Amino acid sequence: MKMAHIIAAGLAALGLTATASALEGDAHAPEKREWIFSGPFGTYADGDHGERYQLQRGLQVYQEVCASCHSLDLISFRNLGQAAGPFWDERFENPNDNTVVMQIAANYQIWDGPNDDGDMFQRPGIPADYFPAPFENEQMARAANAGALPPDLSLIVKARSHGADYIYALLTGYGEAPEGTDLSPGQYYNEYFTGGAIAMAAPISFDGQVEYADGTEATVEQMAEDVTVFLAWASDPHMEARKSMGLMVLLYLFVFAILVYLAYRQVWANVEH
User: Fold this and answer.
1) How many Å apart are CA 234 and CA 229, to the nearest integer?
2) Closest of 70, 67, 64, 204 to residue 149, by C-alpha
3) Domain housing 262
4) Contact, 27 vs 195, CB < 8 A?
5) If DSSP codes are grouped into helix, strand and coil, which group holds residue 189?
6) CATH code, 172
7) b/e per residue, 195-208, with b = 16+ CB within 10 A?
8) What is the pLDDT of residue 264?
């Protein structure tokens, strides 16, 4: 990851978290849900042989629904093919060689340059490239969204209080405003958003909005769950490795404790107490 991206996303996450904490009392708390990645043994895999169909569906929802407004600055295409990623394939030790990742990257046009003439130019993406932002700068983003700035989604699950539960609740929480609620033009009612008034229209608004490649029925709830899992992975792509390491450390400490106890018994076995 680029250091500038990491610093910017970290500051954004701190700002988002502080805002959510300060005003959390004005929003309805989301229900606690069980996620496939929850708990010490949770992973992003949902297939019988380690396949990650839900992550792939979530990526599809992001690309077709969210990417027109929201960036994913800290995720490169090759991350999709790394261990625990949506298209992780053990046949490709280097994710840059993953054919699916290469195809996904090539579908994007990336600004590069300058060339020998001093001009910027566009080229097909490669796995090393990062997901391109939908807008060139903050001013353009605000101009296209009635003054509101769509947040980057790289760390959104970590940045928001209640994490994945909040993201899912927000995506499915749009409805009619209660009587007496004052909404400004361009605002929508969502009981899970601070204050209830949100500038983003319901991004997932009807069943079948996305046609899943694997044939899964694309209900509003299913699409919201899938993209939430994908964004949880984007916020913590090394979760599985961290959990695996933690379990190995605990196992090591358990065995070490037994060996220490046996050594203690051996040393003091013939000593009168």
Assistant:
1) 9
2) 70
3) 243-273
4) yes
5) strand
6) 1.10.760.10
7) ebbbebebbbeeee
8) 87
